[in-house]
Amino acid sequence: MSTFTFLIIGKNDNPLYEIEFPITVQKKETYVLQYIAHGSLDIVEEHVWKSNNMYLKIIDKFNKVQISSFVTAGHIKFLLLHEKKDEDAIKNFFVEVHDLYLKILLNPFYEYNKPITSTAFDAKVRKIGTKYF
Amino acid sequence: MSDPLSNPTINTTNVGGQTTTQNTIGGVGGGKSNSVGTPYTTPLQTSAYTTANSLSATNSPIPNHHMINSNSSNNLSGMVTPGGAGLQQQQSSITSSTNNLGLLGQQQPQQQQQQTLLQPFTTQSRLISASCFEFFYIEMIDCIMKSSSDKQQAHKKLDKLGFKVGHRLVERLSLDTALFPELLDAVKFICKVFWTTVFKKTIDGLKTNHKGGVFVLTDSKFQWLQHLSFDSSASNKDCSEYVQFTAGLIKGAMSNFGFKCIVTFDIQQVSTCVFTIKIES
């Protein structure tokens, strides 16, 4: 069964949020996935200033794992690590999560570029994740 | 001539087989139906059907004479209520030409009216009263000025506040647009989309020195200065604190796009503001 890891990376390459679908990934594997995501940040940075699109599609591959990326106007990076290639589902997932992220951002009690601790946000992302993956 | 507020007129219209009594007081109608299912709806209650997405007075459910720059009437005909009667709101005793139910006092064919009721209700955006916002803005600046030890500290606070608002607001506005790798595209976005959202008008002039990274934005009728009055005998007519927040807005918006900049401004004549954006290399 293929797993999906979704990460939100801040402006200074600091992690803001992380989730896995389904939640059965072993600890050891989690570190490997974080390492892969970290390695792809430079590639995202290169693509951002070349492309006009927020959705950057698949930007990197590591063994079987593919990395899709989405960058908001404020240069917050959404990364999705996946094995199956389903671009429509991934794009729709990113768009819906972007909408959720905006709602969090417009909350005056949320400090910009700080980790997202909202349980409501977490629950909604899980719901969107199960809908598409 | 009698005062319109002292003599409320009551008009009765037959809508889809039901009699609807409409009280029009001073040109603002509150629909009242004698059918059991239809609730009494005041103009302000209609806002439950709409969504907020801007910072201006246009289309606000509050009557026009309480607004600044408001020139459109709120047409609520065709909205179906539980009792089946269409609600209608008149503003300043002028009936909109697009109004399907026509003048309240006139009888219209039942067939035509029933067609009107079957049309889907198109939601109009609920917007903020510009006068309310401006009063709030003046009070906010007054509060910050009083709580600060000197003018420089107050300006820093306003700049920081504007930065936060601009940073978040521009993220929301650029939801459906592409990224801006080019500096000029980002500035154009601020001049058109961003300025229109905040002030309901685009920037009047944009001059660029692209190589030097300098952009000069001119607003000849800066909305937040237009309604300020000065004591004619006063020697000091400095009102820079009312513009500092906007400089912060621009700085926050540019920062969100990934361009660090310094924003300065100059107030010319009564309400002409010139903002200078200098990109930090």
Automatic annotation (TrEMBL), chain B:
SUPFAM superfamilies: Ligand-binding domain in the NO signalling and Golgi transport. Residues 9-25 have a biased composition (Low complexity). Pfam families: TRAPP. GO terms for cellular component: cis-Golgi network; trans-Golgi network; TRAPP complex. Residues 1-42, 55-92 are annotated as: Disordered. InterPro entries: NO_sig/Golgi_transp_ligand-bd, TRAPP_component, TRAPPC6/Trs33. GO terms for biological process: endoplasmic reticulum to Golgi vesicle-mediated transport. Belongs to the TRAPP small subunits family. BET3 subfamily. This is Trafficking protein particle complex subunit 6B.
